[in-house]
Design brief:
By secondary structure, the chain is α+β, with helices and mostly antiparallel strands. The chain has five helices and seven strands, in the order H-E-E-H-E-E-H-H-E-E-H-E. The strands form two sheets. A five-stranded mixed sheet has the order 3-4-7-5-6. Strands 1-2 form a two-stranded antiparallel sheet.
């Protein structure tokens, strides 16, 4: 058997595979896009909607996310979840201090600027009653690792924060903050 005849089945399989892939690529991208997905030129925009369980209305979910105070059960700590730019008066003064502390340290990573990377990284972080950073993570990615890591880095470097005021009557504050890189 000649070398060319031995490779013929592989060549045929590769050609069939290439043809099938071309057929798939020829299917219009917008054929059956889910709700909230639009295509403009070469850019696909996906508008993410928060998950809302069927038992809760959107207003119930929003109230839970922006001002949830856990009820103590068996000595569990009292906690609250707030947005950094939320309007809740109980936390406003404290959040302004946290925001100022973060903004003093926040920089746009030079490499990301050079690459033209833009986006919004949403970080959720938790502060204990002594002002210590207990937990922090990217809740919603900007789409660029450098920007996400920059947001995490600034939260980490801003810690420790001021102790939680006793008037808040909580032992842990969970803060959701959006970092706009433009």
């Amino acid at each position: 058997m000649k070398a060319g005849k031995r490779h013929r089945p592989f060549i045929v399989a590769a050609l069939v595979s290439a043809a099938a892939h071309l057929c798939v690529l020829a299917i219009p991208l917008t054929a059956d896009l889910p709700q909230g997905v639009t295509v403009t030129g070469q850019v696909m925009r996906v508008d993410l909607q928060p998950y809302v369980p069927e038992a809760e209305t959107p207003s119930q979910q929003e109230a839970k996310e922006t001002d949830a105070v856990a009820k103590p059960s068996g000595g569990a700590p009292r906690e609250a979840v707030v947005r950094m730019d939320g309007g809740d008066r109980r936390y406003r003064d404290y959040l302004m201090k946290v925001k100022r502390r973060i903004e003093e340290r926040w920089i746009y990573p030079e490499v990301a600027v050079a690459k033209g990377e833009k986006g919004v990284a949403t970080v959720r972080f938790s502060i204990d009653d002594r002002g210590g950073l207990v937990d922090y993570f990217v809740a919603s990615s900007s789409g660029f690792p450098l920007l996400d890591e920059g947001a995490l880095r600034v939260v980490r470097s801003a810690a420790p924060f001021d102790p939680l005021p006793a008037a808040m009557k909580i032992s842990r504050l969970h803060i959701i903050a959006d970092f706009h890189y433009e």
